[in-house]
Design brief:
Layout (H helix, E strand, L loop, with lengths): L1 H8 L7 H4 L4 H12 L2 E5 L7 H6 L3 E6 L2 H13 L5 E4 L10 E6 L10 H14 E12 L7 E12 L2 E12 L2 E11 L5 E11 L4 H10 L2 E8 L11 E8 L4
Parallel strand pairs: 1-2, 1-4, 2-3, 4-5
Antiparallel strand pairs: 5-11, 6-7, 7-8, 8-9, 10-11
Helix pairs in contact: 6-7
Bound molecules: S-adenosylmethionine (SAM).
S-adenosylmethionine binds next to helix 1 and helix 2.
């Protein structure tokens, strides 16, 4: 389901979710991967919002994504920067990669894994490609209580390519998942809509306490936890970054 949605929003992603990240996650990953060295893999690399600046900084990074539309946009973005990224089509649970010193799973991509069996497949797939000193860095938003609502509510109106991108959404909470319908409209500056389309995604907001036993059962040990892309953790953090190592390694 998310593949279809991301294909539909690839061309507006940088104005949409790209601008919604309120923290310097790119700087966080750049510092981390530079210090660690070796090969980095970004799962769910999308249009290259993180991958391309890291590549520009000299980091040996490759990307995997299941959305052909997002990867096509990444290639366009890379060409504009004269970069030649190594990217491939694959899923969070099935991808090929050389051994990795660092695997990144940024921007809550794990919320697209809807149940514990998919989560286990993801952790096992990552563990298989980690070097003995390799780490998985998983970033996800900290779930807050959400209620369903049936009417579309405005998320934002943002300038986009000489016009305005408007996004509205409505949410249905069902069986521990959030079904999110988004309605996108491209508007002229006068307010006239030139195009409207919708996407539907079902996400599972995972609590850290739910991720822990799954990862542990798959042979991963939590070695660090950060909040909002800083070195510290606070009760009101919006995002958490979890660093995991294969159990029994240094
Ligand atoms: C929120 S975007 C993040 C893109 C990029 N990492 C960033 O931070 O800008 C999520 C990306 O994950 C991809 N994705 C979602 N579920 C996936 C899955 N099961 N396997 C592979 N990619 C997936 C989507 O196609 C999309 O490009």
């Amino acid at each position: 389901m998310s593949q279809e949605s991301y294909n539909k929003i690839a061309a507006v992603y940088s104005t949409d979710m790209g601008q919604s990240m309120a923290f310097d996650d790119v700087g966080y990953y750049r510092r981390l991967c530079s210090e660690r060295g070796g090969h980095t893999l970004e799962l769910g690399c999308g249009t290259g919002r993180i991958l391309l600046p890291l590549l520009q900084s000299g980091i040996d990074i490759a990307g995997v994504d299941e959305s052909p539309g997002m990867l096509a946009q990444l290639r366009i973005n890379a060409k504009a920067l004269n970069l030649h990224p190594s990217i491939s089509s694959g899923s969070l649970t099935s991808f090929s990669s050389p051994p990795c010193h660092t695997v990144l799973a940024p921007y809550s991509v794990v919320t697209y894994l809807a149940d514990t069996s998919q989560l286990a497949d993801f952790f096992l797939a990552v563990r298989r490609v980690l070097t003995t000193d390799g780490i998985l860095v998983l970033d996800t938003f900290i779930p807050r209580p959400v209620s369903s609502y049936t009417e579309f509510r405005l998320d934002y109106r943002r300038e986009h390519e000489g016009g305005i991108l408007q996004r509205e959404k409505r949410i249905t909470v069902e069986a521990g998942c959030n079904r999110i319908e988004r309605r996108y409209s491209l508007l002229e500056l006068s307010g006239v809509a030139t195009r409207t389309w919708t996407t539907v995604d079902v996400i599972r907001p995972w609590q850290v306490a739910e991720l822990l036993p799954q990862a542990t059962a798959c042979g991963l040990t939590l070695v660090a936890q950060h909040g909002n892309f800083t070195g510290t953790v606070h009760a009101d953090d919006q995002f958490v970054q979890l660093h995991w190592r294969a159990t029994g390694t240094s």
